[in-house]
Structure formats: structure tokens, C-alpha cells
Amino acid sequence: MPLRKRLFRLLAAVNKAVLPKLWDKDLTRLSPLQKAVAGYRYWVTRNAL
Description:
The protein has helices spanning 3-18, 32-48.
């Protein structure tokens, strides 16, 4: 497995443990900081797959 994919899988595991889950909330009603967190989690998940 390439190093890049391993790095993103590690980041995804850390995100799952540390960052809040936002999947049950309406994305249009999130604060700008919550939108940034959701975008970051999406970016990491997409690169980990």
C-alpha cells in the first residue's frame, strides 16, 4: 500500500476518534467552523479510500 494512502487512513482514524460527528446535522445550518471540519473530514475520507 502506498505511503500516501497509509497516511490518509491514519488521519481518518484520528479524525474518527477526535473530531465531532456532523453527519446527523443539516449541512446548510452549520457554522463556518463546522463546515470547515466537515469539509476536512470529507477530504481525508475521500483520499483514504
